[in-house]
Amino acid sequence: MAHDTEKKQRLHLVFGGELTTLTDVHFRNLDKLDIVGIYPDYDSALTAWKSKAQMTVDNAHMRYFIVHMHRLLDPENG
Fold first, then answer.
1. Where are the alpha helices (DSSP H) in the chain?
2. Most exposed residue of 3, 19, 36, 59, measured as fewest CB within 10 angstroms of its CB?
3. What is the rounded CA–CA span in Å between residue 69 and residue 49?
């Protein structure tokens, strides 16, 4: 019964890497992707994303993304 009262998890993945160009999402080196983490909700993922994006602001090719994993895991209810 504890699961009924708990807030539903909406997992989000935050990751980034250096892109080959500024106009396309094509990573320079997949082996060097920065997997920041998986977060239980969008707000905490956004906080992590902002932190990483701010740390790499001097590198225009470095980009971080938030992936809505809950939409991939359950596309009908995402």
1. 2-5, 42-55, 69-73
2. 3
3. 15
Q: Residues 3-27, buried b or exposed e (16+ Cβ, 10 A)?
A: eeeeeeebbbbbbbbbbeeeeeeeb
Secondary structure class of 63 (helix, strand, coil)? strand
User: 2-44: per-residue pLDDT in tens?
Assistant: 555 567 789 999 999 999 999 999 999 999 999 999 999 999 9
Q: Tell me the C-alpha distance between 2 and 25, whole Å.
A: 41
Distance in angstroms (rounded) separating the CA atoms of residues 28 and 21: 9
Q: State the Cα angle at 29 between 62 and 56, rounded to 5°.
A: 15
Give the helix/strand (H/E) hosting 12.
Answer: strand 12-18
In this prediction the pTM is 0.83
